[in-house]
């Protein structure tokens, strides 16, 4: 059924897919069948989070465990386009989720991604590093992270929301 749904998107019979099935299988089928845009190495899982300001886009949420700096930059580009075209944000700000906002914080990969985003001639309004509490605060419009940290942040937010709803 996943493959049929993906084929429907490929042929234009559907605009998108929602699945309660195996996420890894869905992403693998989608990458093989739909391909990525030129210059994009990996797809990312994305979600829209409510914030104190409005909404923010966060990616990756679990599709990519290990990300290099180039992949994080590609996620920033995809997230910025998503925020502009789906959320209607005129000039989205982009932040890299990190263990601190200082430039020396984090591992080499995230520091390299920040350097690329700061120095490259990209049409991205790069804010810099953000921390977990910046997500709900709405510090940036696009939160970029690897799939492990993104999935942990997503599941934590879901758990806190469930705690207060029930």
Mind explaining what this structure looks like?
There is one protein chain. This protein is an alpha/beta fold and 166 residues long. The protein has helices spanning 2-11, 23-34, 69-85, 108-119, 132-137, 147-165, and strands at residues 46-50, 55-59, 93-97, 125-130, 142-144. β1 and β2 form a beta hairpin. α1 packs parallel to α2 (23-34) and α3 (69-85) crosses α4 (108-119). The longest helix is centred in the last third of the chain and has 19 residues, at 147-165. The protein is globular and about 45 Å long. The termini are far apart.
Short description:
The protein has 166 residues and is α/β, with parallel strands linked by helices. 46% of the residues lie in helices and 14% in strands.
Primary descriptors:
single chain, 166 residues, alpha/beta, five-stranded mixed β-sheet, 5 strands, 14% strand, globular
User: Major sheet, described briefly?
Assistant: 5 strands, mixed
| Rg | 16 Å
Q: Got a strand count? A: 5
Kindly state the percentage of residues in helix: 40-55%
Strand numbers in spatial order across the main sheet: 1-2-5-3-4
Q: Provide the succession of SSEs.
A: HHEEHEHEHEH
Mean pLDDT: 93
Strand % is 5-15%
Compute the number of helices. 6
User: What is the straight-line distance between the termini?
Assistant: 33 Å
Morphology call: globular
Poorly predicted regions are none
Structural class: alpha/beta
